[in-house]
Write a structure and sequence with these properties.
Number of strands: 9
Helix content: 25-40%
Strand order of the largest sheet: 3-2-1-4-5-6-7
Structural class: alpha/beta
Number of helices: 6
CATH topology: Rossmann fold
Largest sheet: 7 strands, mixed
Strand content: 15-25%
Oligomer: single chain
Order of helices and strands: EHEHEHEHEHEEHEE
CATH class: Alpha Beta
Distance between the termini: 14 Å
């Protein structure tokens, strides 16, 4: 447990929220010394919102409509996060690319998980990219978010094999299982003050 006090998390979601659930479970078991202060979604129908409501976590529906660009949308997102005094922003299946407005508001304090071993196969449909290229191993990467697409400093990676008969769906399912361990582990390191960003690299303290 951290002596710094509980880390205040804001989680951004767009879909079913399985990684959100893994984080909630890890907090409830005491694995992570953190509190989810709010869950924000650009999709009012996201099942992740139901997961949050069941645990009494405040939810905010912040839809895309009415905004002409990412900057205006992200400026409001920043206001919401700051109203909850969020320290670390978690992207748990949030299907929007962040602008510099968000990145600059939370430097080295936005975490994302990607279903491949970065810097290989960034962007959408990473699992299909892996299969198309014929690599033997893939996995997931937790990284800090910068202004690029999946280019921020890498925190943790977990490797899984790519089987001969894998489909995009079967590989995705195998990777998702390790995501549910890797993402909470990275958040725990941050909450315990054990991550130091040194340029492109992240040092993990003992």
């Amino acid at each position: 447990m951290s002596s710094r006090g509980s880390c205040r998390l804001g989680v951004l979601v767009s879909g079913s929220g399985t990684n959100l659930q893994a984080i909630i479970d890890s907090i409830e078991t005491g694995e992570i010394n953190a509190e989810i202060c709010c869950v924000i979604s650009n999709n009012a129908a996201a099942y992740a919102l139901t997961r949050a409501k069941r645990r009494g976590i405040p939810v905010v529906v912040h839809e895309n409509k009415g905004f002409t660009d990412r900057y205006g949308y992200d400026a409001v997102t920043v206001q919401i996060l700051r109203s909850y005094n969020v320290e670390l922003v978690i992207l748990a299946g949030f299907m929007r690319i962040l602008s510099e407005t968000m990145v600059n508001a939370f430097p080295n304090a936005i975490m994302n998980i990607h279903p491949a071993l970065l810097p290989a196969f960034p962007g959408l449909h990473a699992q299909q990219q892996v299969l198309n290229y014929g690599v033997r191993y893939s996995g997931c990467t937790v990284h800090f978010v910068d202004s690029g697409t999946d280019t921020g400093p890498i925190i943790l990676q977990t490797v899984v094999p790519v089987e001969q008969d894998d489909t995009e769906e079967s590989l995705s399912a195998r990777i998702q299982k390790v995501e549910h361990r890797t993402f909470p582990a990275a958040i725990r390191l941050y909450a315990d003050g054990k991550l130091i960003v040194e340029g492109r690299r992240v040092r993990i303290l003992p």
